[in-house]
Automatic annotation (TrEMBL):
Gene3D superfamilies: 3.50.30.30
Residue ranges of every copy of the PA domain listed in the record: 43-127
Subcellular location, record wording: Secreted
Protein name: Protease-associated domain-containing protein 1
Cellular component GO terms held in the UniProt record: extracellular region
Species of provenance: Regulus satrapa
Classification lineage: Eukaryota, Metazoa, Chordata, Craniata, Vertebrata
CDD domains: PA_hPAP21_like (cd02127)
Length: 166
C-alpha cells in the first residue's frame, strides 16, 4: 500500500457535477515535481486519449495539464508527448474504467529517455467520470486546482467522489 505522502490531490472546480477532490500518485522514477500550486488551470483531455503520438488538440495543452488514458505506449512516452506540446503536467488515468481502488506504479521504460514535467496516475473510474462529465456538458476541458493540501481541509468539508472509498 501507499503511504499518505505518496499521494497528490487535485480538485475539479468546474464543471460543478464533478467538483470533488481526487487522489493521484506520482510516477515512481521519472518526471518532475509540482513546484507551483495552480489555483485554476485547465485539465485538457488529450486527443487521441492515449497520447502516444501527435495530438489533434495539442494547442490547448500548451501551459495546461493534460488528461491522458493508459495504454498504447509507455507512461514515459505519454509524458514526453505532453511535454513536447508544452503541457505543465500529465495525469494518466487507468484504462480500466471500473478501477476505483488500485493504483498502478508508473515506472521508467527501458529507453533511457527522461521527462521534466510531473506525471500522475489517476484511478480509471475517476478519469472516466471526469471525461464523461466534460462530454455531457460539451466542454473541452475541466478547471482544476493542483496540488491541494488536504491536511488543511476539515474532514467534513472534503468533497470526495461518491464512487470512491477513502
Amino acid at each position: 500500500g501507499l503511504r499518505i505522502h505518496e499521494y497528490l490531490y487535485f480538485q475539479v472546480l468546474s464543471p460543478g457535477d464533478i467538483r470533488y477532490i481526487f487522489t493521484a500518485t506520482p510516477a515512481k522514477d521519472f518526471g518532475g515535481v509540482f513546484n507551483t500550486r495552480y489555483e485554476q488551470i485547465h485539465l485538457v483531455p488529450a486527443d487521441p486519449p492515449e497520447a502516444c503520438g501527435e495530438l489533434s488538440n495539442g494547442v490547448f495543452i500548451q501551459d495546461q495539464i493534460a488528461l491522458v488514458e493508459r495504454g498504447g505506449c509507455s507512461f514515459l512516452s505519454k509524458t514526453r508527448v505532453i511535454q513536447e506540446h508544452g503541457g505543465r503536467a500529465v495525469i494518466i488515468a487507468d484504462n480500466a474504467y471500473d478501477n476505483d481502488s488500485f493504483y498502478i506504479e508508473m515506472i521508467q521504460d527501458s529507453s533511457r529517455r527522461t521527462a521534466d514535467i510531473p506525471a500522475l496516475f489517476l484511478l480509471g473510474r475517476d478519469g472516466y467520470m471526469i471525461r464523461r462529465s466534460l462530454e455531457q456538458h460539451g466542454l473541452p476541458w475541466a478547471v482544476i486546482s493542483i496540488p491541494v493540501n488536504v491536511t488543511s481541509i476539515p474532514t467534513y468539508e472534503m468533497m470526495q467522489p461518491p464512487w470512491t472509498f477513502w
